[in-house]
Structure formats: structure tokens, C-alpha cells
Amino acid sequence: MDLNAVQMLIKVAEHKSFTQAAHSLGTTQSRISRAIAQLEADLGTRLLHRNTAMCR
């Protein structure tokens, strides 16, 4: 299991946003998305519900 991906997952959950988590971690939204998708594949389960709605 990739512990960096777990850290990214935690940041996404804290911020409720891939974009804000990426900014917080100094990386791209795309990198976080790919890392979490791989983590989900490794664990065989969906960890996050994704949508395109803006959270305020």
C-alpha cells in the first residue's frame, strides 16, 4: 500500500476537494486522482464518492 496515496486520501477528505488537497500538498489534482484510483484498485473498494459539484 502506498502511504503517500493514503496521505493524499486524508487531505482530500479533510478539504472535501481534490483541487484544494493538491494545493495543500503542493502537487496536481491529476496526481492525487491517479494515486487514489490506484489505492482503490489495490484495496478493491471505492473510497470516495466523486462529483463535479462545487463545495462551498
Q: How do the helices and strands follow one another from N- to C-terminus?
A: HHH
Distance between the termini: 32 Å
Share in β-strands: under 5%
Main sheet makeup: none
The percent of residues in helical segments reads: 55-70%
Low-confidence stretches: none
- The total count of helices amounts to 3
What is the total tally of β strands? 0
Q: Name the average pLDDT.
A: 91
Outline type? globular
Q: What structural class do you assign from the helix and strand content?
A: mainly alpha
Radius of gyration: 11 Å
Structural notes for this entry:
The structure is a single chain. The protein has helices at 3-15, 18-25, 29-43. Helix 1 (3-15) packs across helix 2 (18-25) and helix 1 packs across helix 3 (29-43). It is mainly alpha-helical and 56 residues long.
